């Protein structure tokens, strides 16, 4: 199960841990994902999505229908 937001397409980034001596080792910056159920009144059904917290803020602001429509247009959501 990959750690990718189903609405925005966000995924982990790669960077470096840098010590005081400036030694660099690879590390991962994971995104903050939540598994969340949403009710879609137009389709009269519940859907479960893995969304990032930034996508959750967009859902609270714009509504689930608008965000899902935008994700379908960008090709992130194929449901």
UniProtKB/TrEMBL annotation:
Belongs to the bacterial ribosomal protein bL28 family. It comes from the Bacteria. Gene3D superfamilies: Ribosomal protein L28/L24. GO terms for biological process: translation. This is Large ribosomal subunit protein bL28. One of its GO terms (cellular component) is ribonucleoprotein complex. InterPro entries: Ribosomal_bL28, Ribosomal_bL28/bL31-like_sf, Ribosomal_bL28_bact-type, Ribosomal_bL28_sf. One of its GO terms (molecular function) is structural constituent of ribosome. Keywords: Ribonucleoprotein, Ribosomal protein. Transmembrane segments: none annotated.
